[in-house]
Design goal:
mainly alpha, 69% helix
Amino acid sequence: MAPWTPQPAGLQEILQTIHESTATSATVQRNITEKLNQFTRAPEYVAYLAYILSAMPQEEDRIRTIAGYLLKNNARLILSAPPEVAEFVKSSVLSAFNDTSIMIRNAASQDIVAFLGVLEPRNWPECLQHLVLALDSNDFDRQEAAFNALEKACEDYPRKMDIEIGGTRPLDFMIPKFLALSEHPSAKMRSHAVACLSYFVPINCQSLFVHIDAFIACLFKRASDDDPSVRRHVCQALVLLLAARPEKLMPEMSNVAQYMLYSTKDKNENVALEACEFWLTFAEDQELAPYLHPLLDQVGPTLLDCMIYGDDDLLWLEGDAEEDNAAVPDKETDIKPRHYGGGKSHGYERDANGEEIQEAPKQRIGAYGQELLDSDDEDDYDLDDDDFADEMTTEWNLRKCAAAALDVLAVRFSGDLLKVLLGPLREKLWSQDWLQRESGILALGAMAEGCIEAIEPHLPTLVPYLINTLNDPKPLVRSITCWTLGRYASWCSQPKSDEHKNQYFIPTMEGLLRMVLDNNKRVQEAGCSAFATLEEDAGPALAPYLEPVLRNLVVAFDKYQHKNMLILYDAVGTLADAVGRALQNPVYVDILMPPLTGRWAKLKDDDEDLIPLLECLASVTIAMGPAFLPYAGPVFDRCNAIIHNALLAYQQYQQNPELDEPDKAFLVVALDLLSGLIQGLGMGLEPLLAASQPNLLSLLTVCLKHPQAPVRQSAYALVGDLAMGCFQLLRPAMPGIMQELILQLDPEPKFEFVSASNNAAWSVGEVALRYGRDDPEFQQWVLPLISRLIPILLHPKAPRSLHENAAVSIGRIGLMHPSLVAPHLSEFAQAWCQALYEIRDNEEKDSAFRGLCTLVQTNPAGMAKSLLWFCNSIIRWNQPSPELNNMFQTLLQGFKQHDEAGWAAQVSSFPPVIQERLQARYGV
């Protein structure tokens, strides 16, 4: 194979582009990015970059380093490069790693880590060998550079390192080497050694566990190292061991615990944070609780002391911590990307014995007052390591780690933890030092979930204390107090007595509303967030106070900057969900709608802030119902236009994949808002639907085929809502819709398609009911639907929610077309009863069971083998409707009369509770 050599013209062009990339003008930068993206299509591009990095000493270091970074970012291209290109790149990177310039060596080091990850060590063993040999070098810089690269590789892909190459395992040789280097005179080398060893703990690496005792001895030896970086890695290794192999630490637990308590107070925050992670990991493992319990009296107070703001935190918070900054516009960088447009999924509530699945509460502000990074899209944070470290300092630090650990300890040990902390907490809450008070209030909030029963007797004192603290001159104290009050909102809003309401609920509500209008943005954010939590907990109990609540929230529309406005939309939408139709009062409509329509008019169709506003309006329209009609026209037309434009943009993208994929969120929330309008206004929308241009139903049919699952999910929700609210408008479009709907019913959907399948299964049932009994048009779809719904119901791996929606729809189709469905009853009877017996009584369940009973009347033999399950699902009803109850009575009596001896024999084998209830309720 002839070695690769560069073409002068190609080399010149790439070099020229790299030189231009150092220009600052935005237009130049855009063109450069485009050009660099085009280069990536050339199979030899990575070789040119490697050549510039390693073989052009006449170029400035800066230019060669940029080539090195571009090489790292395009490492994947080596997999599709011709063999001579790949060989050239590999040898060039290793030669640049020995360059005299530290900048070049650093760039080459990052390239080595990237290529070793892409190619995997098994396909580049000479690189691994090169790095390990360099660990023995007499040149300290070279030794350190090699170890630095190895550490990154061990951290990023330990499993790829834990392999066999040509009959030997490199790690069998490397682990003892790392253990020996943990004694190196240089702190940097000791730090790399301990770090590398620790990264193999979580993957259960046998090469390490052969030396586990030597490893633990090494950790104890390094525990008192004078270098904080070494101590940090020792703490990290002990945390990883506790998670992966706790039995190895238990014999030494008293020493380890004392060391970790000591390290949690280390002056170096990085060491303290790693040590604090130990308590979080310890508390999260239920099996370790007996070992942790005796340490509570030491761990609890230590964590409490870690929750005080450090000097660095305060520096970072300076803007929020002191002044009235409500009028200062937000920097766009303060606003984290939020993920909208998850779409609604149709599900059912289960009785308590069916582990009723509650929707997780909305995370408004993260558990310890931080804004959470949404990790749905990893690409959002494609930052350099240093930027990322800055980004994370705003997120995770010692204070938040300690609060999280306290939260988990509270869940694990509740009253026992409170006993230990009552004294220290009292001291902090009544301290003269505001930093101590603030940390006490944070701790009180962190313990709310786990210790609620133990704390409850103290809440009549603590809640007034917190309400009073909302007057504290320090914004950071006011904001954490809002968060903590939010954590106790469910206690404050309990309907115990008028006295409870007047002493706790109303003052909490008034206090938080005052914070919503605070002059400090951080306090506004915490107040608005906590108020939204109170709304969820109080629900309809807020209705009598709607006027003052709305008047306060409306003032915030004029006062808030960009970031808090997004939280305000959430609070208004949550309020509408909580009080429901109480919002119909014309007084409330007149207070709330002008600021919402004002915001609506200001935002362009492609403004991302329109998305949370549309979500908010969806809740408001459902709650206001007919009272929303005067505002419906412009809202409907704009949603229709957004859907139309989004579909056109997607069509262009499909024809030209070079374009960026359009954001689905606009499409999803516009569909959801139309669902809200239909739930609120029903047939009131007829003139708008008829006049829509292009017609909404034809757009909807296109959305049902959309490649992105959340769009289909919201589109099927809209089909179901249209069926319920204005079926005669939907009916003409049904043939086209049904065609798509049948295809969407998949027994084993990919995880991301589950919600779309759920909504499709649910909407079928709504449509079947609206067509009515034995409708000839619907008849053509009965068998295609049933032949897809039954396999969903019988599929052992289909999610529970999908089983439930399929069962309800089979029941409803059976209610309307019994003669077509009844012959199949024996196939699905048992699975059907199993899917629905734990669902709470509701209208959907009622119509489904009336369908099942109709099918049993039509084909009694179909239920013969599943009688136990049928009877179990009957007796699980709390209050069936009179019609359904009569059907149960008639069927059970019929079974008994048909064959008394056979019936008696069968019932005698049922569990006693079923026998008793059948006898008590139906006399059989």
